[in-house]
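Appendix B. Raw example, untouched.
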Amino acid sequence: MAFTDCAAHDSSVARVRSGLFTFRGSAQAVCTGAQAVAGRGRVTWYDAGGRTVGSSTLQPSLHHITSYNPGDALLGGTVARGTLAGARVSGSATPTSDVSGCVLGGLRTLHGRGTVAFLR
């Protein structure tokens, strides 16, 4: 998941302009939510020139979420270590791809757009 148009109110991360979020773990997901979310995510942060300026390890804290997009389960928790360590993570995403096939055959991929906040 790509984070773009990043803005910071904290001078320690003022150079951050974008990030790339990857997640390794598992969840039991259905079309309307996810539960038993386990694993960790990592955000690699980049400046305006595309240079790496840090990374954050995210620990999802939601064990159950009911949302239009089960991917929201990955957008809540805390930064366990690295850039913004200790910050709470809160976000949501809305699918931008067709989700009508979810009930009958499931989805292999899901594209979306949303917001994520890192709060100290």
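End of appendix B.
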